[in-house]
Design goal:
single chain; Aspartate Aminotransferase, domain 1; alpha/beta; three-stranded antiparallel β-sheet; Aspartate Aminotransferase, domain 2; binds pyridoxal-5'-phosphate
């Protein structure tokens, strides 16, 4: 088994490097670009808009900047380095050609204030992408504006509000139903849009408990948010019945698209009865993610709801692409300009290069990889697969490490830290919350059989270490740039240092 040692630099912050007057780039003098029209008038920032003092930026040479960030990157783990089985986050390998295309000057030097007639090419890309996403999800129209899945959820909840407001029953529609296996952003988005989140339990098969759902539904139900396959990787087979229950009370069905990778080209949320669907471009469609962004969370809706989508909408008129702001029922704007364009261009390139058959194969291989892993991990007879273990999972699976807790006091977090010592990123842990000591594994379609086998072998080795040398696992990681962090200190408002300014002002107790 290959060893793993992460590079360890005691790297100062960028503010501690360089010295006054040093620079890496000489900015040429500003020339008046409209000299011919305005003569010799100079373009200045008006006095009242200028800072009194220049910002205290670090002053470094180019080589210092390059070395600083290269050292930092060596102390990090990324999907280009190895297996990254972060469940529900779909950390797949992103083809480099997508990055290349998104960075072409003809695309990335465009300015959002340009006249629409001068950006016909990018508008065509966005319009085509939105049509493809509508086709893939079985929706009528797609807005590309939301910046992430959670942002799509929020927009979806605002559209539910707008729909019920127009039907004159918003004051009655106060509740949004969410299963207990859902991601935390679901109830948060519901609450931000002014709804009360009603949590419905899962049944013993791991699916939403249909009887509990029936008793939660009433004339106060604005809608239901559902992830399918759900966060256990299980396909909600009763989806047609569930859709009927919600639609019978004039509620709307929202599809959390975090797990869309599992069903690409196989089945469409729109055909399952969903009225509103978000897509996490940064998970399913070949755009990198991590560290909170930048992502894109386009939202597709049924024909009836299209009028509520945010403005501007990209339309085609007389063969030209136009930005249409004239939508009286629109919920307005939810983001500046038109969305995270470079992420959307990557998705366009990804879909174009794979085609319909390639997308379908993506789903098939990701499901195959998961079920291969399940078989291999179950053979170790250490980690338990909760809920119906005979039932195949889709793109991800959730194991519980509870037996190791009971036997040796080892928790999932210890296992996840020890995985890092073997050069493997941790799966998602402690989610979904309905599984004790949860370890949520999503291999995606982009890792080879050898990599999957190595992961299983490492899990076997760790289980062995738990028995023979539990201290090793408690103290992991040892081979990484930083060893075990105090998670409480790292997330407590009193001890967090969020900026250099906070650090030098001594506001931190670290
Ligand atoms: C099931 C599920 N829903 C929603 C989200 C939120 O998506 P985003 O991170 O793009 O905001 C996630 C994020 O991982 C998720 O796993």
């Amino acid at each position: 088994m290959p060893g793993f040692r992460q590079t360890r630099w005691s790297e100062p912050t960028v503010f501690e490097l360089g010295c006054e007057g040093r620079s890496g780039y000489l900015v040429p003098p500003i020339e008046n670009p409209i000299k011919e029209e305005l003569g010799d008038i100079q373009i200045f920032i008006p006095e009242r808009m200028r800072r009194q003092e220049p910002p205290k930026l670090p002053e470094l040479s180019e080589v210092e900047v390059v070395r600083h960030f290269t050292r930092l990157s060596q102390m990090n783990y990324c999907v280009d380095l190895g297996f990254y089985p972060l469940g529900s986050c779909t950390m797949k390998y992103n083809p480099k050609i997508n990055d290349y295309l998104a960075s072409l000057p003809s695309l990335n030097l465009l300015h959002p204030y340009q006249d629409e007639m001068t950006v016909q090419g990018v508008l065509e890309i966005l319009h085509t992408l939105s049509r493809w996403l509508a086709e893939i999800t079985g929706t009528y129209e797609v807005s590309l504006q939301p910046a992430a899945g959670a942002h799509g959820e929020f927009l979806g909840a605002l559209i539910m509000r707008a729909y019920h407001m127009l039907s004159d029953d918003l004051s009655e529609r106060t509740e949004l139903i969410i299963p207990d296996s859902a991601h935390g952003t679901n109830p948060a988005s519901a609450a931000m849009a002014g709804f009360k989140a009603i949590i419905v339990p899962s049944d013993k098969t791991g699916c939403i408990d249909v009887d509990a759902l029936k008793s939660a539904v009433s004339n106060q139900t604005a809608g239901l948010m559902l992830t399918n396959p759900n966060t256990l990787g299980i396909f909600e087979e009763n989806i047609a019945e569930i859709a009927g229950i919600i639609h019978d009370v004039n509620g709307l069905l929202y599809y959390d698209g975090a797990n869309l990778n599992a069903i690409l080209g196989k089945v469409r949320p729109g055909d399952m009865g969903f009225d509103i669907v978000h897509i996490n471009i940064h998970k399913t469609f070949g755009a990198p993610h991590g560290g909170g962004g930048p992502g894109a969370g386009p939202l597709g809706v049924s024909e009836e709801l299209a009028k509520f989508l945010p403005v501007p909408r990209i339309i085609v008129e007389d063969g030209k692409y136009r930005l249409d702001y004239n939508q009286p029922h629109s919920i307005g704007k939810i983001r500046s300009f038109y969305g995270n364009i470079s992420v959307l261009i990557r998705a366009y390139a990804y879909i174009l290069s794979l085609g319909a058959e390639g997308l379908k194969e993506t789903a098939e291989i990701s499901v195959l990889n998961t079920n291969y892993l399940i078989k291999k991990i179950r053979e170790l007879d250490v980690y338990k697969l909760p809920y119906d273990s005979k039932r195949p999972r889709k793109h991800e699976c959730v194991f519980s490490t509870k037996p190791l807790l009971e036997e040796k006091g080892i928790r999932t977090i210890d296992i996840s830290k020890r995985l890092l010592d073997y050069g493997i990123h941790s799966p998602t842990i402690y989610f979904p919350m309905i599984v004790e000591e949860a370890m949520m594994i999503e291999p995606t379609e982009s890792f080879e059989k050898e990599e999957l086998d190595r992961f299983v072998e490492v899990l076997r080795k760790i289980a062995q270490e738990v028995k023979t040398n539990p201290e090793l696992v408690f103290q992991a990681p040892k081979n990484t740039a930083v060893t075990r962090l105090d998670e409480m200190k790292a997330s407590h408002p009193k001890t967090m240092t969020l900026s250099w300014r906070m650090h030098i002002k001594g506001q931190s107790n670290l």
